[in-house]
Structures are given as structure tokens and as C-alpha cells.
Amino acid sequence: MRSARGGVTLPWLQPVPSLRGVPRGHLMTSSNKPRQFYIHGITNAGKVFRPSDWAERLAGAMSSFRPGGRGGAGGIGAFIGYSPYCVPQVVDEVRCVLVNEALRDIEPMAWDFVMNFARDNDLPVAEVCVLPAETPPKA
């Protein structure tokens, strides 16, 4: 499916309105969970984003942002791994990065870095839509 700009539009990947200028804490309240977003590895022009390990590089740059502060466990008990707020994944054979909105409250500059990376490289960002579990019909 082609968009008006000539790029490929994926029906399941809907653009997210800009989050710039939204006051901190406005998107997340104590009554709702932080949202999650995918940065999709196919540009708005329909090309596969290169280099092929871009998702792992981006998630690696964000690996120090963990629950419980910047260092997380830190020290001798620390391990090498990705932050739970920025995780590389493959969806339909396309590299993506799953970014949790909680990163914004932990370190706004890290959130801006990730979102600006997507914008600067013309990568689509979409909010993850979690469908509720099916309940069996009542008899």
C-alpha cells in the first residue's frame, strides 16, 4: 500500500502524534501504565534501515537506564544486557526497537535521543496496541 508521499504504509503501523512539547508527567499518571512504542526498521520511503544492527546499537546505547536508577543493580552483581525500557526485537522479519514511555520520566534526554533518532532517520514510530484477552461467551 503506497502513501501520498510515495512511501509504503503498513496497515498495522499507525503514526503517533508528536510527543514534543507535552509536559512531563502528562502522558503518564498513577492510574495508567506507561505506553510502549515501536520504532520500525523500514523507513517511511519503504527502504530497510541500515546498518543491519541499528536496533541493537540503539538499545545498547540506552542499556544503562534501568529500574532503580541509572546503574540499576550495579557493581559486581551487574550483568550485561539491554534496559527493559529500550529493547531490540524482530517483528515480521523487520528489526524494531520497543521503547517504554517510562524512559521519559527516568531520563528525558534519553527519551528525546531515541525519538529524535527515529525522526532524523525517517523511521515510523507506532504505539503498541495490547488487545485484551478473549473471554469465553457466557452460557
N-to-C series of helices and strands: EHEEHHE
Question: Compute the gyration radius: what is it?
Answer: 17 Å
Q: Kindly estimate the percentage of residues that lie in beta strands according to DSSP.
A: 15-25%
Q: Strands of the largest sheet, in order across it?
A: 2-3-1-4
What is the count of β-strands? Answer: 4
Helix content: 10-25%
Largest sheet: 4 strands, antiparallel
Oligomer: single chain
Return residue spans where pLDDT drops below 50 for at least 5 consecutive residues.
1-31
Indicate the overall shape.
Answer: globular
What structural class results from the helix and strand content?
alpha+beta
Mean pLDDT comes to 76
Give the CA-CA distance, first to last residue. Answer: 42 Å
What is the count of DSSP helices, taking H or I runs of 4+ residues?
Answer: 3
